[in-house]
C-alpha cells in the first residue's frame, strides 16, 4: 500500500459546481498537509497547507484534514474554467536527514463553461 | 525574485548521450530536490540535498548523479541516457524556516531520449 493514495480522475464538472478532491494516507508521522495545483506543462505550485485536523479556508478553496481517519480533502466553491488543472496532495514528515514530502499522484480536474 | 529556475526547458538526446540539467534558486533555501514526473506515476524523488555539500538518494536514483554546487545551485546529470529516462524533470527547493516545509518548484525540463 502506498503511503498516499489519490484518485487520478479525470474529474469533469460544469462551471459553478462545488468540487471535492481527496487523499488518504497510511503514515501517522505526517505532520503537514498540502495541496498543489499544476497547470498543463507547468511546475506544481503550492495552493495551501494545513496542520491540525479541521478546516482552513482561502477564498474559494477549503482544505480539510481528518487525522483520525487519515483523510484530507480540498473543496473548490464556484469552480471556474481557470481551475482546470491537476491537483496534487502532499504530506510532510521528519526523516533522519531532514524533511520529506510524499505526494499523491494527482487528480486531473476539468471545469467546463 | 525568480524563485526556482531550470535549464534547459526542452532537450532531445540519443541513447547513450550525456547531459546535465541545471537548477538554481534565489530564495536562500537550504534543501533542494530533483523529481521526475511520468504519466500515471506522479512525482518521484530522484535525489535531494538537505544542505550545501550533502546529497542523498531518493526513490529512483539509478542512472543519475547530482552535484550541489553551492547553496543556490543543484544539478542533475545523466551519464548515459536511456529511453526509460524520457520524462519531465522538476527541481524544487524548501526551507525548514517554514514550519510546514513546503517545496517550491521550477517550471520543469522536458527530456526525450530516442
Quick synopsis:
With 113 residues, chain A is mainly beta. Chain A contains no helices and 11 strands.
Describe this structure in words.
The complex is a heterodimer of chains A (113) and B (114). In chain A, the strands form two sheets. In chain A, strands 2, 4, 5, 9, 10 and 11 form a six-stranded mixed beta sheet that branches. A five-stranded antiparallel beta sheet of chain A has the order 1-3-8-7-6, with no helix packed on it. In chain A, 0% of the residues lie in helices and 59% in strands. The radius of gyration of chain A is 14 Å and the shape is globular. The mean pLDDT of chain A is 92. With 113 residues, chain A is an all-beta fold. Chain A has strands at 4-6, 11-14, 19-25, 32-38, 45-50, 54-58, 61-66, 71-76, 85-95, 98-103, 107-112. Chain A has no helices and eleven strands. With 114 residues, chain B is mainly beta. In chain B, 0% of the residues lie in helices and 51% in strands. Chain B has no helices and eleven strands. Chain B has strands spanning 4-7, 10-13, 19-25, 31-38, 42-49, 56-57, 64-68, 74-78, 87-94, 104-105, 109-113. In chain B, a hairpin with a 6-residue loop joins strand 5 and strand 6 (56-57). Chain B is globular and about 40 Å long. Chains A and B meet through strand 4, strand 5, strand 9 and strand 10 of A and strand 5 and strand 10 of B.
Amino acid at each position: 500500500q502506498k503511503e498516499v493514495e489519490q484518485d487520478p480522475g479525470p474529474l469533469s464538472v460544469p462551471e459553478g459546481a462545488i468540487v471535492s478532491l481527496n487523499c488518504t494516507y497510511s503514515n501517522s508521522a505526517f505532520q503537514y498537509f498540502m495541496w498543489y495545483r499544476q497547470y498543463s506543462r507547468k511546475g506544481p505550485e503550492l495552493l495551501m497547507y494545513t496542520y491540525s485536523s479541521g478546516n482552513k479556508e482561502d477564498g474559494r478553496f477549503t482544505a480539510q484534514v481528518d487525522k483520525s481517519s487519515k483523510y484530507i480533502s480540498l473543496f473548490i466553491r464556484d469552480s471556474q474554467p481557470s481551475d482546470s488543472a491537476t491537483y496534487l496532495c502532499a504530506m510532510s514528515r521528519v526523516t533522519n536527514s531532514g524533511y520529506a514530502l510524499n505526494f499523491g499522484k494527482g487528480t486531473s480536474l476539468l471545469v467546463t463553461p | 525574485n525568480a524563485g526556482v529556475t531550470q535549464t534547459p526547458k526542452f532537450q532531445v538526446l540519443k541513447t547513450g548521450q550525456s547531459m546535465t540539467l541545471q537548477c538554481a534558486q534565489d530564495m536562500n533555501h537550504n534543501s533542494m530536490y530533483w523529481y521526475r514526473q511520468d504519466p500515471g506515476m506522479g512525482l518521484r524523488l530522484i535525489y535531494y540535498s538537505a544542505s550545501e555539500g550533502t546529497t542523498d538518494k531518493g526513490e529512483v536514483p539509478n542512472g543519475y548523479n547530482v552535484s550541489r554546487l553551492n547553496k543556490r545551485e543543484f544539478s542533475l546529470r545523466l551519464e548515459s541516457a536511456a529511453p526509460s529516462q524520457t520524462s519531465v524533470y522538476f527541481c524544487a527547493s524548501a526551507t525548514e524556516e517554514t514550519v510546514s516545509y513546503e517545496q517550491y518548484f521550477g517550471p520543469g525540463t522536458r527530456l526525450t531520449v530516442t
